[in-house]
Amino acid sequence: MAQVTLKEIADILGISVTTVSKALKDYKDVSEETKKKVRELAKELDYQPNAMALSLRNQESRTIGLIIPEIAHHFFANIINGIILEAEKHGYLVIILQSNESFDLETKQIDLLLNKRVDGILMSLSNETDSLDAIRKIISNGTPLVLFDKISKMVNCSKVIIDDQKAAYEATEHLIKSGCKKIAHFRGPLNPQGSIDRFLGYKRALEDHKITYDPSLVYICNRISSQEGFDYAQQVLKDHPDVDGIFCITDLVAAGAMSYFNKNGIFVPDQISIIGFSNWPISSLLTPSLSTVDQPGTRMGKEALGILVEEINAKKKKEPIEYHLIQLPTKLIARNSSKKS
Amino acid sequence: MAQVTLKEIADILGISVTTVSKALKDYKDVSEETKKKVRELAKELDYQPNAMALSLRNQESRTIGLIIPEIAHHFFANIINGIILEAEKHGYLVIILQSNESFDLETKQIDLLLNKRVDGILMSLSNETDSLDAIRKIISNGTPLVLFDKISKMVNCSKVIIDDQKAAYEATEHLIKSGCKKIAHFRGPLNPQGSIDRFLGYKRALEDHKITYDPSLVYICNRISSQEGFDYAQQVLKDHPDVDGIFCITDLVAAGAMSYFNKNGIFVPDQISIIGFSNWPISSLLTPSLSTVDQPGTRMGKEALGILVEEINAKKKKEPIEYHLIQLPTKLIARNSSKKS
């Protein structure tokens, strides 16, 4: 059975398509009797109004676009979860695109979504993004935009982030307070703001506690992989045999480092403490269980979607839009890969 | 700057909207000179054709709908990844909805997608799904449908799955060949086909190797959580002190069980072997590293999308649609939580 059209309803009842259409929209110039007949038949045949035609009339697609660097990533998956849960509440559908950390793809995807006339766009920037022209096009196009997690401070729009610098400060301070004196940092790539902020938090915590910052204790994980954690764990012991703590950019890198130490008979945390970042579901099940920083992914998605819907509504009512900068709190989770502080 | 319309282009050039529209579509009754002017101005003003109007004309939304039980789940995140990568290649956008394992929500989401007139639907069923009426509505509506991973054999459409029974058989057989004589199974809920098939594979492997099947060695994980793995690890030792192997429905449950044994000085695999299912990214980093079965999530997503696009194209050309049943191969990954077989 194909989808029922207005014309079929009209033909069955022997009235015009216009009358059927007006009846379904409850126009005054159609009799109550006709309206009743049309509604009953529409229900019986399971008539569904053509969403595209409706959207065209309302200039509204009830669809929002989401561009995210990587879906198969625990934190982003939680954010998507939050976005979709909240979109459902507000009656929006979500089109998801994955930039794969590629700036070119991201630019193309922005065009696709504008072309599709989505009502608003949510974005977390790729690590490669170095020009903001495409993103500014969203704004000049009048489409509401909210950036989250991986943002650029140079774009004038609402943003939802965590305070990476503060979170990294707390993680590093936790190691210091538990007795670590020589703390390495397995950091992320050089470009992304989050990676920079975590590094700055690490550095500031050292300085505030009168520990001299030593750049040779900082190792760059360009792919943010467990293999890099594994390899740098071996490297840092060669470079600095007296290292006694490591703050890792994510739990995955930390798990890789811990796996190297476990395999080589180096005791965590007795000889070396490790703290990660992100609180992956399996982190509590590592041996020893991994200390980390919990990031509220689901909440971040909900907040970002909530603000976007506010802005879409304001635009509809032609009200001025006020940009928000939301910083969500993180939580230090001290487990057994670090000593009690 | 709002989006440029055909009317604005027409006004600037002092020609009719119809002429502009025809020029952009390269109609023969518009002069080359006018076409050139229109194209140049459209490019300069960054004119984007209204996708909804285009769709309405073509009866095509270039959008497909995806309903999945849970996004923040490693295996599903990989599937979504595969679907989106492949959709990108074919020029389709993907609307993602999450059923949250709720049958009611799933039914509502099917209506939403049909109402949105997506070109096709991809679905993995919720654990709760016990009536197939809503799913059959997709088919009777003439919308191409492909089920993947969590399917129902009762629906007549294309399906992409893994051979859960065979994969579970191999996992159990691996434990038997490595010397285990009393093997427990921490299984999934009673309803889903995948959970049933893994149980059947376990049972068949025992029988084929002349080990008597003992129902008291099977424990049901309704939430498929690490906590259940942890709790049942304790329970199984009480119920069967001589148990020497466990096959778990997923790595998460296995990781929970291993965490209990690690904490209580029970050596894995010397005293008890463990094998999981799914090959989570952190599973290789557990101590000991977890033996498991690798499921090709990304490939499953790509295959499902590919078949759906084939069916959408066949429908457009009014060609008959042939349903496929694709069973993707899994791979046993023997690590250190089980003995060498």
Automatic annotation (TrEMBL), chains A, B:
SMART domains: HTH_LACI. Pfam families: LacI, Peripla_BP_1. The keyword Magnesium does not apply. This is Substrate-binding domain-containing protein. Residues 4-58 form the HTH lacI-type domain. InterPro entries: HTH_LacI, Lambda_DNA-bd_dom_sf, Peripla_BP/Lac1_sug-bd_dom, Peripla_BP_I. It comes from Spongiivirga citrea. GO terms for molecular function: DNA-binding transcription factor activity; transcription cis-regulatory region binding. Keywords: DNA-binding, Transcription, Transcription regulation.
